[in-house]
Amino acid sequence: MLLQLKNVFKWVNSGGQRVFLLKDINLTVEEGEFISVMGPSGSGKSTLLNVIGMLDSFDEGEYRFLDEPVHTLKEKHRANLYKQYIGFVFQSYHLLDDLTVQENLEMPLLYKKVGSSERKSLVADTLDRFNIVGKKDLFPAQLSGGQQQLVGVARALISSPKLVLADEPTGNLNSKQGEEIMELFKQLNNEGVTIIQVTHSEKNATYGSRIINLLDGRKI
Amino acid sequence: MLKNYLKIAWRSIKGGKLFAFIKIGGFAMGIAGCLLIALFIKNELGYDDHYQNKNRIYRVVMQGIMNGEQLKSVHFQRLFAETLQSTYPEIEKAGKINTSELFGAGRRALRVKGTTQNNFDEGFIYADQQVFEILELDLLEGSPENVLTNPGSIVMTSSKASKYFPDGNAVGQTVFLDDDTSKPYTVTGIIKENKEEKSHLDFGYLMALEDKNTSWTTTNYFTYVLVDGNTDIPALEKKMHLMLDQYFIPALTERGMGTDFMKVLKTLEYKLQPIMDIHLKSDIKMGDRLKHGDIGFVWLFAAIAGIVLLMAVINFVNLSTAKSANRAKEVGLRKTIGAYKGNLVGQFLTESIVFSLISFVIGVLLTWILLPTFNSIAGQDITIPWSQWWFLPTLLIAGLLVGMLAGLYPALYLSAFKPVNVLKGNLSIGAKSGKLRSSLVVFQFTTSVVLIIGTLIITKQMNFILDKKLGFDKEQVLMVQGTNLINNNIHTFKDRLLELPAIKSVSVSDYLPVDGTKRNGNTFRKAEGGNQELSVPAQIWKVDYDYINTLGLKVIKGREFSKEYTSDSSAIIINTAMAKELGFEDPLGKRINNGEEWTIVGVLDDFHFKSLKEDIAPLSLVIGNSSGIVSIKLNNGGSAGALKDIENIWQEYVTNQAFQYTFLDQEFAQMHDDVKRAGDIFNSFALFALFIACLGLFALSAFMVEQRKKEISIRLVLGAPFESIYKLLTLDFLKLIFLAILIAIPIGWYMMNRWLEDFAYKINVGWEVFCVAGGIALIIAVATISYQSIAAALIKPLKSLRTE
């Protein structure tokens, strides 16, 4: 078991009323799963992903990640945990504009204090694996959307996470580019990486091994 | 990691060119301003810092109370120094100098024996051998043991020596002063000069003292002492009271001073002024007539320097946090890919240090460019100490420190963003840090307005001084210097001048109501009637019959001097202040005594003969010959041609010295140079501060507009007219500027009233000064903001909406 959510609630107070963003979510994710989270706008997909990614907190319930009780951990421990095991991919790529492709890839390793030579070889491997060696000195603005997302995925994977969280990774891409990215996810999943993606697209959802439907913060 | 930080810092400079320019430009200007002032302060504090025995050298000061006011003097008897030295074993050496024009110090004409040319020069001082040793003067040539012991010895500085003896060999040569061949001087030494070593005593020549005066009632000498290292100074000051009891008071009693004056004597005491305090901490009441600095001025400058730097730092902080919207995304991202807060703080600090160091380099260059201008404004001779070992390291450390300080808040602020908020895109940065940024803008403009108020008030006071009815007419009066060379022909010279149609009147006297001319203080008592015990210290000036007319003085009682009265050789004309001090209801015909007896024939309206910082003191005029300066009153509009004519006549009388003249009004203005300087300096720094503040405001308004672009576009689409958008963007800032003006007014009012307290004659500070100062700040601020607001109100709405 990779992670487990038990009776997780998240709410905000608006005008004296409690508005639930997540309501009584129970979810167990095993290693090697490829899960698609679906649902209409505002149903809590991204919130759920952020909670799983430990970027966001929740108000009630339990969350265990690799048997660590996330809900009792201090902020710093929690950050350490996700930095070590989780990679993020975003709809709008979120590459660092000031850095080249190569430098974007290198950044997580720098923060992890990976040694210079190991860093170099890891970056070289990744560039090679994702077939973007020729683009390594370009800045994000010089790449197409699909290429940027490719770099985004590459960056999420470079520090070998156990879990990749992707929030509508193909939302800004055309269908061909989207397909390529989904193929890539599939392939990664086959290599043993656990993936949770948020998507609107039925077709993309089928790449996954399991679909979770959300409505108004509730799992249906 | 550091390499990575540096790379990002560099790209961030390259990326946001306008912001980087404003950040670095403003910072560099702040640094330049601060550095200029720091150099100035260092220079001011460096006076008399170079003596090996600097902590053991003192100047003697006497102080007491007279009519409820403090009295201070640095003038002592000729015997005072040597008596001190022989009486107190802790005084290792005591020496004296005489700087009085009355004795021939100050400006003289110098001629080298064997040449014909007289050269008008200044910086002549009488000094004895002990002073030469106390001040640790170094000789290039000559023997230091007895360089000033023999009468007729003269020592000159190396720059003076090379002027008159370009081939060297000055020592042993003979020179004449004021063409007096009966009193030759022999050059006995050349003093080594060092530009780094500044002294309160600025001289070119030291002449050996030959005065044989043994009186304990005449005081003409500054007295310096070198004390033993273990001396208890307050105890010594107390012990020195013996000098009063044993010598000064008995002598005065014997001469017969009034009992009122004897009361003053009881309050007298001696103080020892450390030599390093003389330049900055001398009181104008001491009357040493040296060019001094002012410790208050130094403090004020230090405060301005601090504020200018603070403003620059504030800009930096302001712009950094303002840019945070753009950086927030980056921060959030970096955190999700594994950055710790420490990493981000390090990154932002590195960036700010890089900015700071670049700014320092530019700031130092700017200082180098501005230094000549600053020197001329501040009347200084400051150089950048490039070659000093501490200079560049100090700058480097300062750059690092300032960079860290300025970067700390933005770094902590930016690195605290929560990634989830940023990535969700619902971060409202403007609102959160708005208050801080607003108060920083208020601070900057408050400072600017205070400086503008200062500038306006100082300028007003200076104009007041220059336009004030002084009691004498300073316009169109030419002062011809060095006329003592004409000797006995002075009367025919005067007659020849009067033949010129452009000349209204001519007077021969070197007592004039401007600095650098002769002064002679004396004590007067009534010779008959009234309270004869009353002693009045007063100036007594030797003038000729045309003096009152030439200077446009007004006789309000009695008459002027006249050749028709043969008794006028013992006639005296006093000013109103003196009549009042003496307590005469009707002074005319009364006799007064200062050792000689005089009959009062007239009373003058008071006129200013000292700086306007001081009250008009008692003064009297008597007929006498004192021919160093000839004052020429010209008819209106005739000066250009007249100058040539006067020079021609001069050359008939004096063949071997160039014609030297100044105008009385210029000399008067120069007397108040310090006020003008203060005004100029305030002016420059007010501009500096305002510029930095505007730079910040400009960038900030640019940022605000950028932030609200979407809002503006929506408003425009909904049909908002141009004015409403303009108002929307401008009003918020204007409120801040108004607040700043409100805060600045009381501060400026208080500060400038304190400054004006120094003047006995001063302007009233009216409300219009504050209106003008506020108006200036407001106009400049509106102009600055408008550039952005107008641009914003003219944007094409679709463009910015489509990019969303």
UniProtKB/TrEMBL annotation, chain A:
The keyword Transport applies. InterPro entries: AAA+_ATPase, ABC_transporter-like_ATP-bd, ABC_transporter-like_CS, MacB-like_ATP-bd, P-loop_NTPase. GO terms for molecular function: ATP binding; ATP hydrolysis activity; transmembrane transporter activity. It comes from the Bacteria. GO terms for cellular component: membrane protein complex. Keywords: ATP-binding, Lipoprotein, Nucleotide-binding, Translocase, Transport. SUPFAM superfamilies: P-loop containing nucleoside triphosphate hydrolases. It holds the Pfam family ABC_tran. Residues 3-220 form the ABC transporter domain. The keyword Transport applies. CDD domains: ABC_MJ0796_LolCDE_FtsE (cd03255). Belongs to the ABC transporter superfamily. Macrolide exporter (TC 3.A.1.122) family. PANTHER family: CELL DIVISION ATP-BINDING PROTEIN FTSE, LIPOPROTEIN-RELEASING SYSTEM ATP-BINDING PROTEIN LOLD. This is ABC-type lipoprotein export system, ATPase component. It comes from Arenibacter troitsensis.
From TrEMBL, chain B:
InterPro entries: ABC3_permease_C (IPR003838), MacB_PCD (IPR025857), Macrolide_Exporter_MacB (IPR050250). The chain crosses the membrane at residues 20-41, 296-317, 344-370, 390-417, 438-458, 685-705, 733-752, 772-795. Pfam families: FtsX, MacB_PCD. Residues 303-416, 684-792 form the ABC3 transporter permease C-terminal domain. GO terms for cellular component: plasma membrane. Residues 24-240, 449-607 form the MacB-like periplasmic core domain. Keywords: Cell membrane, Membrane, Transmembrane, Transmembrane helix. It is found in: Cell membrane. The keyword Ribonucleoprotein does not apply. GO terms for molecular function: transmembrane transporter activity. It is a multi-pass membrane protein. PANTHER family: ABC-TYPE MACROLIDE FAMILY EXPORT SYSTEM PERMEASE COMPONENT 2, MEMBRANE COMPONENT OF TRANSPORTER-RELATED. This is Putative ABC transport system permease protein. It comes from Arenibacter troitsensis.
